[in-house]
Design brief:
alpha/beta; Rossmann fold; seven-stranded mixed sheet; five-stranded parallel sheet; 17 helices
């Protein structure tokens, strides 16, 4: 536990949608690996898998040097550690020297074990696991609370209030245990000033937290807009390749994600620049230090757009049959915020924080004419639940 982060382990447990999916995949001779950003609730979830059902389990915190030295890919050594336990948790498994080899030995030697590993940095853990444990692992991803998880755990009459709060403070689980604005801001500032960068700064090729901070601030001010790596490089006085490298690491530590333009090589469509969004809008607001109420903000439209697109991405990421997501924009400035491609069909989603605004008719006509059979929906807070549930 980070000493600066307030401990809310005694707070009521918020059940996650992923919990049922993981239960269904126990006892199948596979290592379940849970990826996701720090503080998203991975440790809480995997411990509750067994704790709530009074099932014995062995919890190994792989950040501890003692554990790192003991866990080696040797069946006799591993048997000494796990004893008669049938359920083993390797928390922050990326700290192990050879986690993939360890998991392979355990599964091959003790096929009746349930092994669950967590990791907050996919660029480290997946690289160590992928080759040795190919075919033996099931990866899942846990993010801050989804709209559905919030709705499920809080009274329906309050869901509009929680949407408003989420657009300001995000949806990290601990945020919902605090009652005052000051507590929420304090938590997010601690999260973004230290915890957010921990995995990246531990990585040997990153040595400038100041540049990383400036990069994130620049990206925070460009949500919903096309991003130029070259412009950001000039702004930060670093080279373009370094910008791309940092953005790649930020994506692999689940801070941001990229949305690429959709095009079937039509000459009128822009098909180069990406858009970059945050998995959590509270983190974005903390980076620019703006927690003002939505009625006095000029960026509430971009916040709602970021929130909806992130929800769609998160909702899709653990599905067996996945959609592809893009944005669409033409040289004549016609644009649709999100394009979903699924089973050969296209659905467009245009986000409007105000229900008094709609997609321009010219944009609708051009897109449908270019892609016959596609549909476009206008997403507002009033229909957010309906659209997320129907998807």
């Amino acid at each position: 536990m980070d000493p600066d982060i307030i401990d809310n382990t005694d707070s009521p447990y918020i059940k996650r949608d992923l919990e049922d999916i993981i239960y269904q995949n126990l006892n199948k001779g596979k290592v379940i690996i849970l990826y996701g950003p720090r503080r998203a609730g991975k440790t809480t979830l995997i411990r509750h898998l067994f704790k709530d059902k009074n099932i014995p389990y062995l919890y190994l915190n792989c950040r501890q040097k003692r554990i790192q030295k003991q866990i080696v890919p040797d069946s006799l050594e591993l048997k000494t550690i796990i004893g008669d336990h049938k359920n083993i948790i390797f928390d922050e498994a990326q700290y192990l020297e050879d986690p993939g080899e360890v998991f392979t030995v355990l599964i091959d030697t003790f096929p009746n074990l349930n092994i669950i590993a967590s990791g907050s940095s996919s660029f480290e853990l997946s690289g160590k696991v992928q080759e040795p444990a190919t075919g033996r692992n099931l990866p899942y991803y846990l993010f801050p609370l989804s709209y559905h998880e919030i709705e499920k755990n809080y009274p329906a009459t309050d869901i509009n209030f929680y949407l408003d709060q989420t657009l300001r403070f995000g949806s990290y689980p601990e945020i919902f245990h605090y009652t005052t604005t000051d507590e929420k801001i304090h938590y997010l500032q601690l999260l973004t000033n230290d915890y957010l960068y921990k995995d990246i700064l531990d990585f040997e090729r990153v040595n400038s937290s100041a540049k990383l901070q400036k990069l994130l601030e620049a990206l925070s001010l460009q949500i919903g807009q096309q991003v130029s790596y070259s412009e950001i490089a000039n702004m930060l006085s670093i080279d373009r390749k370094t910008v791309e490298y940092y953005i790649d690491l930020l994506e692999k530590t689940y801070v941001i994600f990229r949305l690429y333009p959709y095009s079937r090589n039509l000459r009128s469509e822009i098909n180069q620049k990406v858009k970059i969004y945050f998995y959590d809008v509270g983190v974005r607001n903390a980076l620019i230090n703006n927690f003002n109420s939505l009625d006095i903000r000029s960026d509430c439209g971009f916040l709602f757009e970021n929130y909806f697109i992130a929800e769609m991405i998160k909702q899709n990421i653990n599905k067996l049959y996945k959609s592809n997501f893009y944005y669409w924009r033409t040289y004549t400035q016609k644009e649709i915020d999100l394009i979903e491609e699924r089973e050969g069909k296209l659905s467009g989603f245009e986000c409007k924080y105000s229900d008094k605004r709609s997609v321009p008719r010219a944009t609708l006509n051009e897109f449908v004419e270019a892609y016959p059979g596609s549909i476009i929906k206008t997403v507002t807070p009033q229909v957010l639940k309906e659209i997320l549930e129907s998807n």
